[in-house]
Amino acid sequence: PPKLSILNNCSASQLEGLCSFLQLSTCPEPFLVRFCSWLLALSPDLSYTSAAILAEQLFLRRVLSLTQPPSRHLMAALTSFCSKYSHPFCRVLVAAVLQGPGEGAEQTKLMCELVEECLEPHSVQLVLSQVLEVPLSEKLLPVLQAVLGRQEVLPPELLDLLVLTMCQQAPAFSTSLDFAKLVTAVLTVYQSQVS
């Protein structure tokens, strides 16, 4: 709708206030899908800051509170939003999931699915760099596996950081089958660059 052009004219604080007024963080999921389709049609595109605020308002609470797989409506909305605004989405949501306490099994599965199916190559690299900023855990190994499964060409500095991180933290994973799979994946995908 033409009224949505207001999103391009709001300051950050005004946009947060508008999201709060519209109760976007708790709106029904079918409406969320429709709202995200409207965002895709918006011209000009949202600014990075506006997209990050909307990612937080629309998805953060929903994703962090997942205790079972996301509904098809939530998945459709996430996929739709990621198709155009994956960079701000990753900055907001992936960071929050990585820093979240506990196992977060559903959040981890969701991140893997987004990496495997939705994110652009530059956003996959962003996810990898975010994962490498925190200590590795069993929870994060499937995310790294999903990143490597994309077989993207990584910048040398990012590949070096991945290998260095794995070498430094290997003793903590001496009995981990997932870590062994990860090492095998790195040696397979990047065999020409890893000595």
From TrEMBL:
InterPro entries found in the cross-reference section: FANCE, Fanconi_anaemia_gr_E_prot_C
Domain Fanconi Anaemia group E protein C-terminal intervals: 3-194
Residues forming coiled coils: none
Classification lineage: Eukaryota, Metazoa, Chordata, Craniata, Vertebrata
Protein name in the entry: FANCE protein
Region forming the signal peptide: none
GO cellular component: Fanconi anaemia nuclear complex
A GO BP annotation: interstrand cross-link repair
Gene3D superfamilies tied to this protein: 1.25.40.480
Organism of this sequence: Vidua macroura
Pfam annotation, one family: FA_FANCE
Domain of life, per lineage: Eukaryota
